[in-house]
């Protein structure tokens, strides 16, 4: 089984994913890390050198490759991964994949992302005073994809352990 975590950047996909993988004794894979290892370039470099369209094709191919694995894994997707092409349809229709949307408020996303803005290619160029509006617009646009997940978990005011408990109850 592959548990695919999706949600906007900063929603906790990697943090929750690592903890969930430990709890379930599954392998943890961060899609961005996997793509960087395969291509020997950072996500920022890929975006800059190849452009977003080519990056999304690389990303889609990586998702397919990982979903062919027979390993039990928690897969933390990139924030935009399910929103391009037919990737979300592929994920929700895959017999070995269970999708979980980590739904996080705009304010929480802003608080988390404002401290690491320079490390995020999508928002690095934004003036600080435009970050909240950008996040809100993006989340709105992407929510139609995120909301197709088999499980939606609201992350607000919950600890990692609380989220793991909630998710594991739904998996049983």
- By CATH reckoning, the class would read Alpha Beta
Q: What portion of residues is helical?
A: 40-55%
Order of helices and strands: EHEHHEHEHHEH
Helix run count: 7
Low-confidence stretches: none
- CATH fold type: Rossmann fold
Which word captures the global form?
A: globular
Separation, N- and C-terminal Cα atoms: 13 Å
> Mind telling me the CATH superfamily name?
P-loop containing nucleotide triphosphate hydrolases
How many strand units? 5
Q: What quaternary form is this?
A: single chain
- Average of pLDDT: 91
Molecular structure report:
The protein has one domain: P-loop containing nucleotide triphosphate hydrolases (Rossmann fold, 3-Layer(aba) Sandwich), CATH 3.40.50.300. Helices cover 52% and strands 14% of the residues. The chain contains 7 helices and 5 strands, in the order E-H-E-H-H-E-H-E-H-H-E-H. The chain has a 5-stranded parallel sheet, sandwiched between helices. Helix 1 (13-24) packs across helix 7 (160-171), helix 2 (31-39) crosses helix 3 (43-67) and helix 5 packs across helix 6. The longest helix is centred in the N-terminal third of the chain and has 25 residues, at 43-67. The protein starts with a strand and ends with a helix. The relative contact order is 0.21. The model has no long low-confidence stretch (mean pLDDT 91).
């Amino acid at each position: 089984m592959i548990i695919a975590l999706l949600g906007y950047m900063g929603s906790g996909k990697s943090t929750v994913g690592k903890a969930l993988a430990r709890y379930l004794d599954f392998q943890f894979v961060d899609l961005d890390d996997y793509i960087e290892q395969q291509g020997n370039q950072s996500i920022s470099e890929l975006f800059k050198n190849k452009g977003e369209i080519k990056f999304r094709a690389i990303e889609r191919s990586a998702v397919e490759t990982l979903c062919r694995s027979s390993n039990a894994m928690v897969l933390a997707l990139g924030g935009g991964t399910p929103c391009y092409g037919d990737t979300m349809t592929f994920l929700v229709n895959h017999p070995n994949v269970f999708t979980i949307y980590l739904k996080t408020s705009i304010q929480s996303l802003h608080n988390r992302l404002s401290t690491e803005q320079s490390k995020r290619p999508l928002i690095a160029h934004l003036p600080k005073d435009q970050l909240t509006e950008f996040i809100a617009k993006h989340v709105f646009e992407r929510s139609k994809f995120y909301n197709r997940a088999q499980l939606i978990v609201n992350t607000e005011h919950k600890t990692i352990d609380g989220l793991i408990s909630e998710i594991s109850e739904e998996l049983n």
